[in-house]
Write a structure and sequence with these properties.
mainly alpha
């Protein structure tokens, strides 16, 4: 193959010049490639010399060599073209075959993967079926064992013939047992059979319980389980249970949603009818057999189960009828009360109240209680005699003078308390307590609204009745705060009360925990504020009237009244009569309208205000001669003080300023001058310690003056006109 073009450089001046050729031959002996040193010209020269030689005469061989080389070059080109066209086709065919093989391989791998997934899913589904079949087989095995056990029990029942023995004793006692029921002729034999059968049944149950305990998983800590009924009691309950379901299920007329008392009363009747038989016949057998159960309680438990199932079925159907629901709650509460009291059912066992504590039922109960209470409060406040007391004509009974509305309201709260007192759950009890507190606060707001309507006439009977109502409610709540039941609720409120009664501060929690505070403390504070406000309005009204009537008395000529020696007998100042009559009338009137605690607060507050009024507006406002001072002392000690002497033994203690002022004003001239000099000297020597001279306070104490300060005494001494110039 010729890959280099012939290069001929002819030098005309040199005959030794040879053409330079670059030749490559393949497949012939003339193939020559460049030397390893890369001198391509030397290789061409060597080829020419070999074929032609160095003789110029041999140049005629060049054309032949050229033709030969051209032919070989052409052949080589054809070979190259053939090879270059055939090799890509074979390579492409090989690549196509490889690609097809790869696709087939991937397809096979995908099919294998899908087959593996399908097989895995099939295995998983088969495992579920296997587990399900295993459970079914286990259940079938359990059922088979139970069936064999029941068949064994049925056979034992056939052999014992226990129910027939009970029939001989006239069991069950549907109606109260009477003396007309004659005992069986061979009573001794039946007693022996009864004891034998009961003992055997107890032994059978004991062995069954042991087997069950081994199979059962242990209960969680703190989880109590009610023990199953003894086997003899279960058999004795069968006829009663059958009769109960006959009458109180299905379409029987006795199965009436509006008459829950029918089946509840029937259960109580059966309990009462059977009590003697259980105590006299069954209990001794149980005791001798070593069974630590109470036969009568066991029967009550069984009968109670019937009532519980019936209530659980009926109660949700009555949630949308308030009247029927309230009736059901009343009957359930009454049933629980008779169950615990009449039949002495232990409180360790649940009764029927837990059915009312189910969340939906309990919230309905609270809602109905609130609704009915509000309706009753509206009715009692709008009643004609709401603000009068039904005991007003009976003095011994009507000490608190509570109006009918307040007394009825507290009775309503007391009834609510009795309804939730027996609930076994402190949280439920606290929920009802929160409802009661809400109702009390609502009633207080209503009292405040009515009081504001009557505030223009604070001396009216209705205003005083409102005040008595607030005091009555406060008194009752204070008594409840010391009640054992509410003290127990107080302890429960410390632990769980925040969820129901709202957040409690650290101080309030501490007071509740130490029993220093009360559950009603906040309400009592609000009621006390209302009572104090109303009492203040009442005192203001009386004092306005008294001050108006006392104006002539305050402006009397105290400086020019005749002395005591010039009068045959002392008498009340004529100008004081309107004031004294006004005081007497108000005291008598309010004594009749206010309860005793409120009236005591009233007259003591009135005395305090009168003391300040007479001292400031009468005594300090005037000057007194000897006759004026004596007259003032007579009016106070012989007329004003005795008005309050009906309510206490020493009324003058409530008028200390007036009493001591009268004492200073009526001092003889000599002692008054000495007292005046001593007070002046003490004032001049103020700050200088003098152990020889007594203090002004001690000197005043010797005279009976304890309330007035020395400066006040000096002012009073200066009001004396008889020796004013001398001093």
């Amino acid at each position: 193959m010729l890959i280099g073009a012939p290069v001929m450089e002819h030098n005309k001046h040199s005959s030794n010049a040879l053409p330079h050729l670059t030749l490559v031959r393949t497949g012939s002996s003339t193939f020559q490639s460049p030397s390893e040193d890369g001198n391509f010209t030397d290789d061409v020269v060597a080829l020419v010399q070999k074929e032609i030689g160095g003789d110029l005469k041999s140049l005629k061989k060049v054309s032949g060599l050229l033709e030969q080389l051209t032919l070989e070059n052409k052949q080589l080109e054809e070979q190259v073209l053939t090879v270059s066209s055939s090799v890509p086709l074979r390579v492409s065919a090989a690549l196509s075959v490889a690609q097809e093989s790869r696709v087939k391989l991937e397809s096979l791998l995908e099919k294998e993967r899908l087959l593996s997934n399908t097989l895995q899913q099939h295995l998983q589904g088969a495992q579920v079926w296997a587990d399900s079949i295993g459970q079914v087989l286990a259940q079938l095995d359990t059922l088979e064992r139970h069936m064999k056990y029941l068949q064994c029990l049925a056979r034992i029942e056939e052999l014992s013939d226990f129910e027939e023995v009970l029939t001989q004793f006239h069991w069950p006692f549907i109606s109260p047992p009477t003396q007309t029921l004659s005992p069986p002729a061979n009573v001794q034999e039946f007693n022996s059979q009864l004891e034998l059968l009961v003992s055997q049944l107890l032994s059978l149950q004991t062995s069954d319980d042991l087997i069950s305990e081994k199979r059962e998983t242990p209960s969680r800590p703190g989880q109590s389980q009610t023990p199953p009924l003894s086997l003899p009691i279960q058999i004795m309950l069968l006829p009663l249970s059958k009769r109960f379901r006959y009458h109180f299920t299905g379409n029987r007329q006795t199965n009436n949603l509006s008459k829950p008392e029918w089946f509840l009363t029937q259960v109580l009747i059966w309990m009462g009818n059977s009590s003697n038989f259980m105590d006299e016949k069954i209990q001794p057998i149980l005791d001798r057999a070593g069974a630590k159960v109470n036969a009568r309680v066991e029967l009550c438990r069984g009968l109670l189960t019937l009532a519980q199932e019936k209530l659980a079925q009926d109660t949700p159907r009555l949630l949308y009828d308030d009247a029927l629901f309230c009736h059901l709650v009343d009957e359930v509460l009454q049933f629980e009360k008779e169950l615990r009291s009449t039949h002495s059912y232990p409180r360790a066992y649940p009764g029927v109240l837990h059915i009312l504590l189910e969340e939906t039922v309990f919230q309905k109960w609270l809602s109905v209680e609130r609704k009915m209470a509000v309706e009753k409060v509206d009715a009692m406040l709008s009643a004609e005699g709401a603000w009068s007391s039904q005991y007003k004509d009976i003095t011994d009974v009507d000490e608190l003078k509570a109006p009918d509305c307040a007394e009825t309201f507290m009775t309503l709260l007391l009834v609510i308390t009795e309804r939730y007192r027996a609930l076994p759950c402190p949280r439920a009890q606290l929920s009802f307590l929160a409802l009661q507190k809400e109702l009390v606060d609502d009633f207080r707001i209503r009292l405040t609204q009515v009081m504001k309507e009557e505030s223009r006439q604070p001396l009216s009977p209705r205003y005083c009745a409102i005040l008595n109502a607030a005091n009555y409610i406060s008194t009752v709540l204070s008594d409840w705060g010391d009640n054992v039941f509410f003290l127990q609720l107080q302890q429960a409120a410390v632990s769980v009360g925040e969820e129901i009664l709202g957040p409690l501060g650290a101080t309030e929690t501490g007071r509740l925990a130490s029993l220093e505070g009360s559950l009603f403390e906040a309400l009592l504070a609000l009621l006390e504020r209302l009572r104090g406000d109303m009492l203040g309005r009442l005192l203001d009204a009386v004092m306005r009237d008294v001050k108006e009537k006392a104006q002539p008395y305050c402006k009397d000529r105290w400086i020019s009244l005749p002395s005591q020696s010039d009068q045959a007998t002392m008498s009340l100042s004529s100008s004081a009569c309107p004031m004294m009559l006004c005081l007497r009338d108000h005291l008598l009137q309010l004594q009749q309208m206010l309860c005793l605690p409120l009236f005591q607060m009233f007259w003591q507050g009135l005395a305090e205000r009168l003391n300040s009024f007479i001292y400031e507006d009468l005594i300090l406002y005037n000057h007194f001669n000897e006759g004026g001072a004596a007259q003032l002392q007579y009016d106070m000690t012989r007329n004003l003080f005795p008005l309050f002497g009906h309510y206490c033994k020493r009324p003058e203690n409530f008028f200390k300023h007036v009493k001591e002022a009268c004492l200073i004003l009526t001092l003889k001239v000599g002692p008054a001058l000495l007292l005046c000099d001593m007070l002046k000297q003490s004032e001049e020597e103020e700050g200088i310690l003098n152990h020889q001279q007594p203090s002004p306070e001690s000197a005043l104490n010797e005279l009976g003056v304890y309330k007035l300060a020395p400066s006040d005494v000096q002012i009073l001494l200066n009001l004396r006109t008889a020796w004013l110039n001398q001093s």
